[in-house]
Amino acid sequence: MSNTNQNTVEALNVLLADYHLHYQKLRNFHWNITGPNFFELHAKFEELYEDAKLKIDEIAERILTLRGKPLSNFSSYLDISNIKEAETNLTDHQMVSSVLEDHEALLQQLRSVSHEAEELKDEGTLDITGTYIGELEKTSWMLNAWNQRS
Q1: What is the mean pLDDT of each run of 10 residues along the chain (150 residues)?
Q2: How many folded domains does the chain comprise?
Q3: What is the Cα–Cα distance from 89 to 33, expressed in whole angstroms?
Q4: CATH number of the domain that 24 lies in?
Q5: From CA 50, how far away is CA 60, in angstroms rounded?
Q6: Whole-structure pTM value
Q7: Computed from CA positions of residues 111, 71, 54, 37, in that sequence, does the dihedral angle turn out positive or negative?
Q8: Which domain holds residue 52?
Q9: What is the DSSP string of 67-132?
């Protein structure tokens, strides 16, 4: 790997760790949701973790394309991720609020990756981050609107 790609690869590995913890949190919520919003949120959390799973693979493949090594140990993810694990006994609104907090962390890291990629004119990475940012912003808007319900 060239030294010029090193910062982008490091930022992408943090993003990979963030998405892994986000994915596992979504699985947690999918499994542990209860109450009157069960059916709606059970399906939504599944939709979100399936999307996160695809992004995990795309991020790892981008790291490999840049001739880097994607991190692959959960202990490494826990060490560098901007996202923290969640409890299993949260209410539906607490779960959605936690997902929204994760989205903010993911957006911040995506912007960090974009910054590194812009300096190198790395259009492949910029294409990925731009798409992910737009999708996350829209999903966040929708989840925030849902969470405003009483």
Answers
A1: 81 98 98 96 98 98 97 97 96 98 98 96 97 98 91
A2: 1
A3: 8
A4: 1.20.1260.10
A5: 16
A6: 0.95
A7: negative
A8: 3-147
A9: T------HHHHHHH-S-----S---HHHHHHHHHHHHHHHHHHHHHHHHHHHHHT-HHHHHHHHHH
